[in-house]
Please model this.
Amino acid sequence: MQTVLITGAASGIGRDTAWLFAANGWQCVLVDRNSEALHALVQELPGPAHVPRAIDLTDAAQVASLAEGTPSLDAMLNNAGMSDSSNTPLAEQSPQHAGRLLALNLAAPAAVVDACSALLKPGARIVNVSSGAGLNAIPFRGLYSPSKAGLIAQSRALARARPEWCVTVLCPGFVRTELVDGLIAAGRIHPERAVAKIPLGRMAAPAEMAQALYFLASAGAAPLGGQVLAVNGGSSIYGGSQAFAPATLQVLPLDLPTRLEIVGGESAAWQGVAPERTATPGYAACLDASALHGRPGEQLQAVHEAAIRFAAGHEKQASLTLLLPPDAAGRWQDAGDAAAARMLVSTLACEWGARALRINALEVPPDTDPQSLHSLLRFVCGAGAQYVTGQTLVCRSPA
Model:
């Protein structure tokens, strides 16, 4: 039995995540300051005996006590956070105004890691939940964006300092949590404006973030150590002025089996990551290796041709995942081609969003065993990642 610690567990993304872990047989250490909601959740969850910890993460003394009575941990999810709904311009705020926000969003994740470091098993996974606001500034929400950008930098520094752990960052986009519903009710977020900036044309459900957190907390996330996974419908890669229309296609079940086709180039070695074909309906996905072993200076053409093939065979609700060589130093004349190929991935994600066609890329070191990326590919290609598009993820070289 594996054990995970989840902060901010009593509501929103944290609650859906706790349900997913518990349903899959994990023991959950559930941390939240809302003791009533926390204990109600523990009573509802299936599986083994879960551990509720009613703790205010802005109180250093309470955080320091977190290790007491907490079992050894396979994974830790620092999910708790808050926004600033005061609408007060930053230049009019005193340093004290944002004290609690900074304590929860930036100081608490580091304090939780420090308090529980002796409980983390070798190879443990730590996932810090930042925000799209940490990638692109959102004004009139106080120090929310700076705190989330700081958490990203802090996570990367932790990954370098403690390579025996797998540290990653989840950056959600707009998710219909209680917090977001409150901002909508207060007139701070206008759904139609938010959706207009999202290529997939919709907000995410908390369950979609739970799927991403469940993957990042697994051993299969090891190739992504030190990286950010943006699960935001493509909003962080869009730079245009044209508004996207609201989505007309319903999200497919997140646990729908993946019907993965592997094509292109030297794809034979990658066939083992595909599930066996069955007659059961599934989520259509394609893994294309045509650019992986191409000659320098030809990545852009290979990606473009792969996209043409994929679009010709898939009308809607499917994913294309491209395998790319590392963006390594080489002839300076070829650097533009490699960068153009990666921007093409993002551009296609924007153009395909209305059809719920997704495209992502993985940079793969030349000595990678395809089986070491099995879990990563199954997540990125599959239905559980329907809000992930336009991303290029860099896979670490095997140790």
Remarks:
- The radius of gyration is 21 Å.
- DSSP finds eleven helices and twelve strands in the chain.
- The chain has a mean pLDDT of 93.
- Residues 349 and 390 are 5 Å apart (CA to CA).
